[in-house]
Amino acid sequence: MITRLRFVLGLCAGLFIATTNASVEDKYQFESKERAQTFAELTKELRCPKCQNQNIADSDAVVAKDLRDRVLTLVHEGKSKQEVIDFMIDRYGYFVHYQPPVTPLTVLLWILPGLIIVIGFGFIVVRQRKAAQAQEWTEADEKQLNALLEKYEQRGQQ
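^ thats the sequence. predicted structure below, dont judge the formating
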């Protein structure tokens, strides 16, 4: 009884391991090595819209499979690498490409934090200077202090 149980469990484990190792990988056929290389480069350069920072070549998401199929179709149609990238950017936005173009908005995103720091530091310096000027000890302040000290000493002697 125990040997049969071990046999059945071993058989189930073996089938489980065999099915996980025999998972289907996408096999694509190309007319030339250049197209195969273009496809491989594109699938590594394009990011899966669903996954966190994973390219469509490595992603198992359904949307990544659809993107790989679309890239395959475009490559078979003879589209250039840039045309495929432009198509994907038009459809999914700049997020889909790991190397987004430099636009006025991206330049602003890079410059704005530094600009805010410089403006904030300038504001602090100007404010400190104004506060320092407002707290300068004048001759009138000296006279008022002396008068208060004299009053204090007179009260202490009484």
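The chain has six helices and no strands.
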